[in-house]
From TrEMBL:
This is Signal recognition particle receptor FtsY. It is a peripheral membrane protein. It catalyses: GTP + H2O = GDP + phosphate + H(+). Residues 282-295 form the SRP54-type proteins GTP-binding domain. Pfam families: SRP54 (PF00448), SRP54_N (PF02881).
Length: 312
């Protein structure tokens, strides 16, 4: 699609992106409730359908209980069940749907981006830089993923495209040193926002996690209040593994919020519900594609309805 072609609205892209997740849920619900009276077995089967959609055991049990309440031995249309499920999902998601706010009290506002390789972290940084530059904010990007030359190159492209400044060093350089230098430059340039990229750490690699802790320590030497936000980028296609990633990064870096990417490539979109129920961390943004407009603020109602295949 060329740049001058009008893009479909984000709701349409969200529903398209969540088609695989919605199809599994919707089909499961339709198969269960078509011309069948609701009983204990039906509720158990519904719970299984919700668990298979990665909504989490506790949330699935609670939603199934709500659907069954006062409806035993009655026929209930699949559409009504989907509406009930969507309403309960929205209740879980509404408290965590929070925009990413770059508070002006902190200048520069230091955002530390963390996440495993392939989660879409560097692309997310680029898209954020683009939005900030459109708001006429002065942005500095720090290429803290010094393990992969490709990551620095990718960030360089985004810096050039958005007009953000870039601080980078040779491959293999000390990532904490890059972060330190970038914050010094951001202060000198009177920048509004500093976004620090980090290597895609696997949560079981202790030495890489130690390096992430070092970045946080070094940044705090210059600004005891920084980083002002630590955002974890999660790839929706990893499903249940996202839970252990949040636990690991929360422990090391004190994650303050989440970005969920690649919802368009998975049948596991329900994992966002399980994450919200378990951790209660703000979900700032969701991504349903590679385009600059495919990363948008998270809206609980839109997601809840899309994930069960309901129209807006």
């Amino acid at each position: 699609m060329s740049d001058d072609t009008p893009r479909p609205g984000f709701w349409k892209r969200l529903t398209q992106g969540l088609t695989r997740t919605a199809s599994n849920l919707s089909t499961g619900i339709t198969d269960l409730f078509t011309k069948r009276k609701l009983d204990a077995t039906t509720i158990e089967d519904l719970e299984d359908v919700l668990i298979r959609a990665d909504l989490g055991v506790e949330t699935s049990a609670r939603i199934a209980e709500v659907v069954g309440k006062g409806r035993y031995d009655k026929e209930i249309e699949p559409e009504e069940v989907r509406g009930l499920v969507a309403a309960e999902i929205e209740k879980v998601l509404a408290p965590v749907a929070m925009p990413l706010v770059f508070e002006s009290y902190a200048k520069p506002f230091v955002l530390l981006m963390v996440g495993v390789n392939g989660s879409g972290k560097t692309t997310t940084i680029g898209k954020l830089a683009s939005v900030l530059r459109a708001q006429r904010k002065k942005v500095v990007l720090a290429a803290g993923d010094t393990f992969r030359a490709a990551a620095t190159e990718q960030l360089k492209v985004w810096a050039e495209r958005t007009g953000a400044a870039l601080v980078s060093r040779a491959p293999g350089a000390d990532a904490a040193g890059v972060a330190f230098d970038a914050l010094a430059q951001a202060k000198a340039d009177d920048a509004d926002v500093l976004i620090i990229d980090t290597a895609g750490r696997l949560q079981n690699r202790a030495e890489l996690m130690a390096e992430l802790e070092k970045i946080v320590r070094v940044v705090r030497k210059q600004d005891p209040t920084a980083p002002h936000a630590v955002v974890l980028t999660l790839d929706a296609t990893v499903g249940q593994n996202a839970l252990s990633q949040v636990e690991a990064f929360q422990r090391v870096a004190g994650v303050t919020g989440l970005v969920m990417t690649k919802l368009d490539g998975t049948a596991r979109g329900g994992i966002l519900v399980a994450l919200a129920a378990k951790f209660g961390l703000p979900v700032h943004l969701i991504g349903v594609g590679e385009g600059i407009d495919d990363l948008q603020p998270f809206a609980a109602r839109d997601f809840a309805r899309a994930v069960v295949g309901l129209d807006d």
